[in-house]
Amino acid sequence: MPCRKRRRQDILTGNPGPLDRVRQAELLVTRSFGVDPHELYQPSRGPKPAADARQAMMYLAHVLFGLSIGQVGQIYRRDRKTVRHACRKFEDLRDDPVFDRFIDQLEMQLSPVAMAGLAQLDRPCAVPPVRGGQR
């Protein structure tokens, strides 16, 4: 697991660190996909909704929260190749306008301004169908 130390400035100002923001984002994403947050950390792929939620979190952790591919892999106990695949898959899925709106909604709710309020985490986004097997 990655180091869980928070920067001193973050602690003093009450700003969540990147891992704290990822954990908060997991609540919204898993609720949107209809899975339990613990399913993100299963060693196997698991059911399709859990795999899709995990891939969405990998994408958001890398793109939105700025974590490296390696850091994301450590969090979700996956290798870098798997994380890169998830990021590529979600970038490709964004070509679909419905799916792009879904990711935009997640990103807006998970933006630093929204994360400060955290009230919006009570409203999950409606997940469009995720196409599998895209390469």
For the record, the count of structural domains works out to 1
Q: Kindly, what is the distance between the CA atoms of the first and last residues, rounded to a whole number of angstroms?
A: 28 Å
CATH class: Mainly Alpha
Mean pLDDT over the full residue set? 79
Q: Which structural class do you get from the secondary structure elements? A: mainly alpha
Reading the helices and strands in chain order gives: HHHHHHH
GO molecular function, one term: ATP binding
Protein name: Chromosomal replication initiator DnaA C-terminal domain-containing protein
Domain Chromosomal replication initiator DnaA C-terminal: 21-90
InterPro entries: DnaA_C, Trp_repressor/repl_initiator
Question: How would you describe this protein?
Answer:
With 135 residues, this protein is an all-alpha fold. The protein has a single domain (10-118), classed as Chromosomal Replication Initiator Protein Dnaa, Chain: A (Orthogonal Bundle), CATH 1.10.1750. 59% of the residues lie in helices and 0% in strands. It has seven helices and no strands. The protein has helices at residues 8-13, 18-33, 48-63, 69-76, 80-93, 97-109, 112-117. Helix 3 (48-63) crosses helix 5 (80-93). The longest helix is centred in the N-terminal third of the chain and has 16 residues, at 18-33.
